[in-house]
Amino acid sequence: MVTKLRNDISNFRQLPDESLFEAWERYKLSIERCPNHNMFPVTQTYTFYNGLTLRHRDTINAAAGGTFMKRRPKECYDLIENMSDHHNDWDTLAHRGESSSSITSSSSEIATLTH
């Protein structure tokens, strides 16, 4: 059972129609269910990011003002939490278009949400 729970965490993948908020909540629940997962918080955050769809990774990179993975681990976690807290706004942005250019062109809206 513990092995399955650890695999759920380390092999996380966002579902095709899952919002960023839903994916983050599901991932955090997996971590809570397996307190002996032996993953550092930084590894957890990067595993989550790498399991996201390209569209949501592009959105997070835009919100980070560049490359998400170059930020400090605490900043990465806080950014995902902030985006999750404002998930209705982010889902609206993401549904404007499937391409990353439509999302990144909304820089003023992204800046508003990240502050």
UniProtKB/TrEMBL annotation:
<feature type="compositionally biased region" description="Low complexity">
    <location>
        <begin position="99"/>
        <end position="115"/>
    </location>
</feature>
<feature type="region of interest" description="Disordered">
    <location>
        <begin position="91"/>
        <end position="115"/>
    </location>
</feature>
<dbReference type="Pfam" id="PF03732">
    <property type="entry name" value="Retrotrans_gag"/>
</dbReference>
<dbReference type="InterPro" id="IPR005162">
    <property type="entry name" value="Retrotrans_gag_dom"/>
</dbReference>
<feature type="domain" description="Retrotransposon gag">
    <location>
        <begin position="4"/>
        <end position="53"/>
    </location>
</feature>
<protein>
    <recommendedName>
        <fullName>Retrotransposon gag domain-containing protein</fullName>
    </recommendedName>
</protein>
